Amino acid sequence: MKKLSKLGILLGVILFTLLISGCGKKVALTASEFKNKMENLGFEIKDVTEYTSDETVEKAYNAQKVDAYTIEFYVSKNTSGAKAGYDQFVANLKAISAKTGTEITKDTYTKYVDTANSYYSVVSRIDKTYLNVRAKDSYKTEINNIIEELGY
User: Fold this and answer.
1) What is the CA radius of gyration of the chain?
2) Which of 29, 31, 32, 103 is most enclosed, with most CB atoms within 10 A?
3) Which residue has the higher pLDDT, 65 or 23?
4) How confident is the model at residue 114 (pLDDT cuts 50, 70, 90)?
5) Contacts of 10 (CB under 8 A, 6+ apart)
6) Domain of 91?
7) How sure is the predictor about 148, in pLDDT bands with cuts at 50, 70 and 90?
8) Do residues 123 and 112 touch, judged by C-beta distance below 8 A?
9) Domain containing 115 — which CATH number?
């Protein structure tokens, strides 16, 4: 009986650990989900896929808040394409920034945030998708709220 209860407790702990480790995992948006969410937030959406020179990009949208900033969203054919796109945006930011931003990496999620020269920038990747935004730092709170709502 003791062996059975110990086994039950052990299985319970394992199950609990598996459930907890899955919590908080970020899920990538599809291109249409991004488009719909941004339209609902009042952004003008432009499909810029045909203007993207990166051959690994399947779909690209610009979500523009008129006279403010644009959030770029990309869906790559694979994770390595998204990582390369993410890395390129981060390298571009590091090249123009006087200091290095902050980077967070967890599982299939990577995020780079930088505030420099009165601009706030975020590059975020989940699986084979990534987004980029660079705007006046006065929009920082608004941008963070949108990115949080998107799950990035």
Assistant:
1) 19
2) 29
3) 65
4) very high
5) none
6) 29-150
7) very high
8) yes
9) 3.40.1000.20
Q: Is residue 24 domain-resident?
A: no
CA dist 135 and 47 (Å) reads 20
Residue 61 counted as domain residue? yes
Q: Decide if 3 is inside a domain.
A: no
For residue 17, tell me if it sits in a domain: no
Domain count, the chain: 1
Burial 83-111 (b: 16+ CB within 10 A, else e): bebbeebbeebeeeeeeebeeeeeebbbb
Reported as half-sphere exposure (CB side, CA atoms, 13 A), residue 6 has a value of 3
Per-residue model confidence as pLDDT tens digits over 57-110: 999 999 999 999 999 999 999 999 999 999 999 999 999 887 779 999 998 999
What is the pLDDT, as a whole number, of residue 133? 98
DSSP labels, 81-132: HHHHHHHHHHHHHHHH-SS--EEEEETTEEEEEEEETTEEEEEEEETTEEEE
Q: 8 pLDDT exceeds 50?
A: no
The continuous run of DSSP H or E covering 145 comes out as helix 140-150
